[in-house]
Amino acid sequence: MRAYVIDAFGDTPALREVPVPDPEPGEVQIKVRAAGLNPLDFKLAGGELANSGAEFSFPLTLGFDVAGTVTAVGEGAGFAVGDEVFGLVWPSSFEHGSFAEYMTAPGHAALAPRPEGLDPAAAAALPMTGGTAQSAVDWLGLTEGEKLLVVGATGGVGSYALQMAAGRGAHVIAVAATADHEYARSLGAAQVIDHRTTDVADAVRSAHPDGIDAVIDLADDAETVATRIAPLLRDGGRLLSTVFATDPDALAAQGIRAVNFAYRATGEDMARLAVGVTAGGLRVAETRSYPLASIDEARTAFLDGHVRGKLVITP
């Protein structure tokens, strides 16, 4: 089968032929129908997860998000042959990712049945980014009328966070390029600021002089968070960074509850996302698909900079 692999951390990934993996006890084999790209895929390739406590085997196939069909099962597996599933595969030992024609997933992977109304490409655009947004909004505990700033609002996580926060009645301020303002508003943003042409902190302070209640920061560095973003929060405000750019202890001394947020997915998270989409309350992020044969093109588009919504690979 074809798979997008590295032979060592730091390698440039390459598409090549590898054996189809067979499921071990407790595992399922999945015929991949779609796989979502995430920043973590390329952090893994670069070796940033080498000391994460997981065991890695080479050649290592990249890819965490998957939607596909169960084609074989090991003894004690939680799914049956023919089941349509989707989710995030983050095993304790990693070898067979989703950028391939087939993969295996352990029993503790965050998988859930894929509803008939959720097509594979849409399902593959949900797990890591939708799950991160869902858990982040839960952590913030947003309530009706609270003011939330989302920095990096129209990427994968932001596309879901805008909707989920607006669905709770929050007044959402999105930071996004001008070309993405209409998209951000369609997802629930009440106010949109272009960080390329406007000072975000000045714009927020001008519109909300009494301060805002919460921040989801998906992009800023530690200095920007400390000096420009955190001061926008009122006493008792909450700040969540997905890029580990905040100092929770320092901000606690300023009356702000802060966290460097690392998402840990569950099958229940995936099922909740599926219900949100199929019930009509959650819209799948704008999705651009590439065939597996063009995955290098997708990787280049991803690494070159701003991507609105999600990129998905369809073998």
Low-confidence stretches: none
Instruction: Assign the CATH topology of the largest domain.
Output: Quinone Oxidoreductase, Chain A, domain 1
**What's the total helix number?**
10
| Oligomeric state, counting identical vs distinct chains | single chain
> Mean of the pLDDT scores?
95
What would a concise description of this structure say?
This protein has 315 residues and is of the alpha/beta class. It folds into two domains: 2-126 and 284-314, Medium-chain alcohol dehydrogenases, catalytic domain (Quinone Oxidoreductase, Chain A, domain 1, Alpha-Beta Complex); 129-260, Rossmann fold. The chain contains ten helices and 17 strands.
Descriptive tags:
315 residues, alpha/beta, Quinone Oxidoreductase, Chain A, domain 1, Rossmann fold, 2 domains, 7-stranded mixed sheet, 6-stranded parallel sheet, 17 strands, globular
How do the strands and helices of this protein lay out in sequence?
Elements: E1 2-6, E2 14-17, E3 28-36, H1 39-46, E4 55-61, E5 65-73, E6 84-88, E7 93-96, E8 102-105, E9 110-113, H2 120-124, H3 127-140, E10 147-151, H4 156-167, E11 171-175, H5 181-186, E12 191-193, H6 200-207, E13 212-217, H7 222-229, E14 233-241, H8 248-252, E15 257-260, H9 267-278, E16 287-291, H10 295-303, E17 310-314
Helix pairs in contact: 3-4
Question: How would you describe this protein?
Answer:
The chain has two domains: 2-126 and 284-314, Medium-chain alcohol dehydrogenases, catalytic domain (Quinone Oxidoreductase, Chain A, domain 1), CATH 3.90.180; 129-260, 3-Layer(aba) Sandwich (Rossmann fold), CATH 3.40.50.720. The chain is 28% helix and 30% strand. The chain contains ten helices and 17 strands. Strand 11 (171-175), helix 5 and strand 12 form a beta-alpha-beta unit. Helix 3 (127-140) crosses helix 4. The longest helix has 14 residues, at 127-140. The chain is globular and about 60 Å long. The model has no long low-confidence stretch (mean pLDDT 95).
